[in-house]
Amino acid sequence: MRSWRLASRAVAVYRATQTTGSALRPLPSTVLPSQIQNQDGVCRPMSTALLMHRDKPGNSVKDDWDFSPENTKRVKEILSNYPKNYKQSASIPLLDLAQQQHGGWIPVQAMNRIAQIIGVAPIRVYEVATFYSMFNRQPVGKYHLMVCGTTPCMLCGSREIEDALLKHLGVTRGEVTTDGLFSVGEMECMGCCVNAPMIVVADYSKGSEGYSYNYYEDLTPKRVVELVQELRQGKTPKWGTQNPKRINCGPEGGNTTLLTTPKPPVCRDLDAC
Amino acid sequence: MATASGRRSAKLLQRIATLTPRLKPRPAVGACGWNPKSLQFWRCLHHGGDGVLLVPDVGRERKTSGSRQLASEGGRLPSSVLGGLRYATSAALPAVGAKVAKAEEMIEVSVDGQSVQIPKGMTVLQACELVGVSIPRFCYHSRLSIAGNCRMCLVEVEKTPKPVASCAMPALPGMKIKTDTPLCKKAREGVMEFLLLNHPLDCPICDQGGECDLQDQSMVFGSDRGRFTETKRTVLDKNLGPLVKTIMTRCIQCTRCVRFAKEIAGVEDLGVLGRGGSEEIGTYVENLMTSELSGNVIDVCPVGALTSKPYAFTARSWELKSTESIDVTDAVGSNIRVDSRGPEVMRILPRLHEEVNEEWISDKARFSYDGLKRQRLSEPMIRRPDGRLEAVSWHDALEAVAEAAHRVKPEEMAGIAGKLSDAESLMALKDFLNKMGCERIWSEGDGKSANVDMRSSFLLNTGIASLEYADLCLLVGTQLRWEAPLVNARLRKAVRSSRAKVASIGPPTDLNYPHQHLGTGSETLIRIAEGRHPFCAEFGRAERPAVIVGSGLLEHSDKSAVMAAVEMIVKHGNVVRDDWNGFNTILLNAAQAGARDLGLVQGARAGNKEIKFLYLLGADELTPADIPADSFVVYQGHHGDRSAYRADVILPGTVYTEKEGTYENTEGRTQQTSPAVPTVGDSRDDWKIIRALSEIAGVRLPYDTANGLRTRMLAVSPNLLRIDDLEPPSDFSFTLKNQFPSTVALSSFPKAVENFYMTDSITRASRTMAQCTAAFFGKRE
């Protein structure tokens, strides 16, 4: 009896992995992001890339890397925000700055340089950089498009948005287009659930000076392709909701509530006390 | 220190404690422990009613009032009470930076309805431990910082909405802690289910199987099935070098290894990478764990993620016989457990000794055991005229030695004791050669003119444990990290806990804590001795300054001048006082302290004639130039190492895992090894060989048993019979010199240890140590 139960359980598990179960299966970390095939949702890995550095041309521990002269000034400014004995607090802003400077991703030598600046062991910086999925440790396109994949966006069609993007660009997730302009990644909730689905466009084309990080909300698969085309032409589409009938996060067709000034709450008459 | 009345009263107190009816085990009256968080000792003084009174240990200054006898845990005081506190005044101690709980800072909490008095600052988990309630845990380790990330230690606290992680929650006054409620059980079962989600079910092939925390605790809190039907994650294994094997899929991310590496070993290589379900432990860049203490991560790992590479798949833990012993690969005398199966040593693990090695051992101590099985001398041998060594009977070999010894004059004989010799064989060797009329005896590493007049001139007087209390340390001619890794770990503790300043003179060393490198040789030393160096001011500011002199200096060509300079620093720096003795020498070899106590130095009638008969008791550090070509060399030892190639007669002895030998460590603590495995081939205990030889040579030594020999040792150096006792060194401040010879050679101090992994015949025979040398040695200066 028991073995039969176990067997039927095993069959159920097998079926689940063949259909929907595997959709959320995390991949072994040995799989490189570029190897990940997005075949109609067969596997949707976490946004984390390989948690290990491997020397490659352009990202080697033998490279030299330093902040540009302008950014060195900004490094000083950032460090001045923190007490001298807590310099390591600057690791996130410095990683961000390094990422902006380096075209949207952080090579290992940049992390080592940051560790040197804030006076900690390099591993402490690697820990931070691997923890936050906003830090890319592999090259990305000049426009890094991050699709929100969290529940509300997913229910409103983020998978279709991503599929449209990937199909239009002809890339897989984590891959950079041959012209080096675009790459697509996934992000967790960015707080725009009311305008779901949404993507973020991190624009590294203008260096750390002209860096922008814009939200594009209320997307449709058609609109997101238009966005990409506009970006390719060098335009900056208007950020925010892409639904012309909405203003910011207000409802379509104007407000339905709070049409008049609400009545203040009833308070005790303090003078009567 | 021991008084009869103190002992009696302690016994009485214990008897009262045992007679008191109680529901749960409580700390015995007199029991004491170490609170790592508040860096203080507690001691149970009283069981009153339903409660237990625990007070911070103030027995440090009451050294004569019987506080020592109160320590009922194996008669052993907690860390440092013996060592530092021997010298320290109440004003100076407890430790700097430590929060001292006064009696009024005791708080009362209740654990499972039993009230207990605990010092403020203890965690809920520690409070439970005191009452004898053990809390399951993975990430909590008493010697590491608190992480609170495994959640296994959840307990219920009254009036809290959720179970709390007891390891990270400070106990607050009046807290009502419950550890045996359904909520606790459910919480722990839930945590266990989560921990097992991604843990592979490979216990049958896991080296940790049988001694695995996760395995044990899943027997209590685990279910026989899980609700997780997804694929388990897999994690890429990391290469941490030839010692630590990683199977990272088994990791439960307790981060003990990360904290150990950062806090104890001082190598920040390991980190937590990624987050959530894909979190893993790693080095990110390809990085071997270059630490001399790296093997300890195997012990701190509660699962089989980090296991021993040399031990992999060689034995199961339940097949092993454990023998408590002492490590002899350095002079620290780390307490070890030798795990053997049949005639083979399968592994070596540390054993807790708060005053010596805490619960760590160096990689050399842990992994050199494969050297015990290789290159062994198993039969007596005589070199034939054609140069070949031929196996002979014991009688023939001993007769050949006796005959050769009688052929030469006593002044032409010499005896050298090796690094690993136990006190018994040292005593026998000295007695034998003296009876032959030879006084030319010395011990390796001491040079030919060791200063043995005052014990305090060659011991680590501060004591290993009390070194934690030093606030300034000057290292002279020592690469402490490689010479005595665990002494270095103590110093690192002092640097971490109280920001002790460390400066070094000598070869630049990669010490794993911040330090100042003042210079490379005698020039800097003399400038400090003469007060012409900015560093002198530090001595004025320090409360408990320490100076550690390396063994490399003992063989320095200008030894007396250098030592005189050190003594001047000691004198002017106020390093030796009534309440604090900060003058230390770090010895390199396990045999060294014992040899000096037994007086293995050249006698007055040693003479200076060319050596014609050389008796080597495991002495392997000689170069061919040291041995005259026409001399007769007897090599008594256990390994076919350097000197065996030159020997005319080989007498096979035993290694430390095969004999009961007495060793004195660098702080003067006498400890004994225990035989764990049988001897190899025809080899014999070293002292027995010398005893037999003496009979054949016609100078019969007057002892036939180990006890007889020890009685003889008692006459020479009684402290060598007081096992695990620290004989306080005598005061020697009056002998300190005030000036040094006008001519001092300005030279750099030599390195005493060239390769940490290969320092003696056992480690040189070890394959693992050879792999370590290949992997790590290139990286070191």
TrEMBL record, chain A:
Coiled-coil regions listed: none
Cofactor(s) this protein cannot do without: [2Fe-2S] cluster
Family label: Belongs to the complex I 24 kDa subunit family.
Record organism: Sphagnum jensenii
CDD domains in the cross-refs: TRX_Fd_NuoE
Keyword Iron: yes
Superkingdom field: Eukaryota
NCBIfam families xref list: nuoE_fam (TIGR01958)
Keywords linked to the UniProt accession: 2Fe-2S, Iron, Iron-sulfur, Metal-binding
Protein known as: NADH dehydrogenase [ubiquinone] flavoprotein 2, mitochondrial
UniProtKB/TrEMBL annotation, chain B:
Ranges for domain 2Fe-2S ferredoxin-type: 105-183
Swiss-Prot/TrEMBL cofactor(s): [4Fe-4S] cluster; [2Fe-2S] cluster
SUPFAM superfamilies, sorted: 2Fe-2S ferredoxin-like, 4Fe-4S ferredoxins, Formate dehydrogenase/DMSO reductase, domains 1-3
One of the Pfam families matching this protein, by short name: Molybdopterin
Keywords: 4Fe-4S, Iron, Iron-sulfur, Metal-binding, NAD, Translocase
Domain of life of the native organism: Eukaryota
InterPro entries: 2Fe-2S_ferredoxin-like_sf, 2Fe-2S_ferredoxin-type, Mopterin_OxRdtase, Mopterin_OxRdtase_4Fe-4S_dom, NADH_UbQ_OxRdtase_75kDa_su_CS, NADH_UbQ_OxRdtase_ferredoxin, NADH_UbQ_OxRdtase_Gsu, NADH_UbQ_OxRdtase_Gsu_4Fe4S-bd
Domain 4Fe-4S Mo/W bis-MGD-type intervals: 320-376
Residue span(s) of domain 4Fe-4S His(Cys)3-ligated-type: 183-222
Family of this protein: Belongs to the complex I 75 kDa subunit family.
Stated name of the protein: NADH dehydrogenase subunit 11
Lineage of the species this protein comes from: Eukaryota, Viridiplantae, Streptophyta, Embryophyta, Bryophyta
